C-alpha cells in the first residue's frame, strides 16, 4: 500500500514539475533589444527543451529512490541504506553577444529603395548603327522612337555637319526599384569628310563640362543637393566592317578613355558571319592594345564564388560585344515568342547568347556591374580630372590647415615664401635677360656672317672682272693693226710703221 501511494505521489509531483519546467523557459534578456527575433525564438525553444529533459531526469531519479525506500520498509529489514543521489545535468548556454551591425545591408537596402538610383549613359557612333534600338532593348522601354522606314536627307558634302548633344531622361521602375536613367546621344558624329576635331571635340567638351558642374556643386558651402550628372559609361558603336578600327575610332577612344568607362560594341553583328565576328574582335583588341587604350573590365573580388568568377570572366572575354538590337517579338518555328529579327535564312534572337552578346552586355551594364561603373567614375576618373583641374588653377594640397596657429611661425613662413618668390622672380628675370642678350648676340653674329659673305662675294666678282679686263688687254695688244684701201680692203702695214693721219700720207 505504501508503494502505491508513493508512486501516485511521485507521478503527481512529476507532472507538476514538468508543467513548471514548461512555464519556466528562459526568456531573452531585455537589454538585447537589437537581437534578431528569429535568433531569440530559436534560443527559447532550445532552452525549453533542455529544461524539460532536466526535469524528466530529476523526476525519474526521485521516483527510483522513493520506491527503494518503500520496499525496504515493507520487508522489515533493519539495515537501511542511504538513498542514492542522481546529479541533474545542467546545460549552460553562453550568449554570443549579438550587436546588430549584420543588419547594415538591410538598412542600406531600405535606404537605396527609398532614395532610388541614377545612371548616366552616353552612346556614340555613326548614323544608322542601331543605337536607339539597342538602348530601347537594353532597358525594355521605348526611350527613342524608332522609324520603320528612316528618312535620308541629302546635304552639301562641302558643308560640315555639327555634332550636337541630345539628352533623354526617364524614370524606370522594376520590382519597386526606381532608376533615374539619362541617355546622352551625339548625333552628327562621323558624318563629315574631315573628322579630325569636328567629331570628337564637342563630346569631350560635354564630358568635361559635366565634371566641372559636379566639381562646382561639390565645392559649394551647401552641398545637400549635389546631383550626379557625370557620365558613368560610354557605349562606342563600331561599324561592322569585319576589319580593324578606323583612324577616327582610334583617335576618339584615345581622347575619352581616361575620362569615362569605355565599352566598345560591334553594331549590327548579324551582318557578319561567326568567323568574321571573331577575326574582327581580335583585330580590334590588337589595335586597342597597341594604342594603349584602357577599357572597362569587370572586377573580380576575393569573396566571389566560383560561379560568379566564371560569369565575370565570361563577360570579359566577350569584349568588344557583338550585339543585335530589336524590340519586335517574333514567333519561332517551335512556338516560342522571342525578341529578334527575322530573315529569309532564319531568326536572330536578341536574348540568345549563341546568336549575339546582348545578354553579356546587359549583365555588364545593368545587372551585375552598374554600381562598379559609378564607383569607378567617382573614385578614379573624376578624382584624376579633379586633381589635374585644381593643379592647373594653382591649388595645391595644404596639410597644415588643422594645425595649431602660431603668428611668429606664420610670419616666418610668409617671409620665407616671399623671399623664395623674389628669388624666383629674380632668377626668371635673369634668365630672360640672358635669353635676350644671347638672342641679340646671335643676331649680330648672323649679320656679321652675312656681311662677310657679301664682301667675299663682291671681292670675287671684282677679281673676275679684273682678270677679264687683263685678258682683253692682252688680246688687243697682240692683234695686228689693219689699214683701209681705197677700194675698201684693208692691207696690213709693215712692222714698225705707223699709219699717218691726215690727207698727206
Provide a concise account of the structure shown.
With 505 residues, the chain is α/β, with parallel strands linked by helices. It has 11 helices and 11 strands.
Task: Describe what this molecule looks like in 3D.
The chain contains 11 helices and 11 strands. It has helices spanning 2-23, 37-75, 104-115, 131-139, 201-218, 247-256, 274-290, 306-317, 358-367, 370-392, 407-478, and strands at residues 117-124, 166-174, 177-185, 233-238, 262-266, 321-322, 329-331, 337-343, 346-349, 482-484, 490-492. The model is unreliable at 1-80 (pLDDT under 50). Helix 1 (2-23) packs antiparallel against helix 2. Helix content is 48%, strand content 12%. The protein is flat, with a radius of gyration of 50 Å. Strands 2-3-1-4-5-6 form a 6-stranded mixed sheet, with helices on both faces. It has a 3-stranded antiparallel sheet with strand order 7-8-9, with no helix packed on it. It folds into 3 domains: 2-99, no CATH class; 116-148 and 159-392, Rossmann fold, CATH 3.40.50; 400-436. The protein has 505 residues and is of the alpha/beta class.
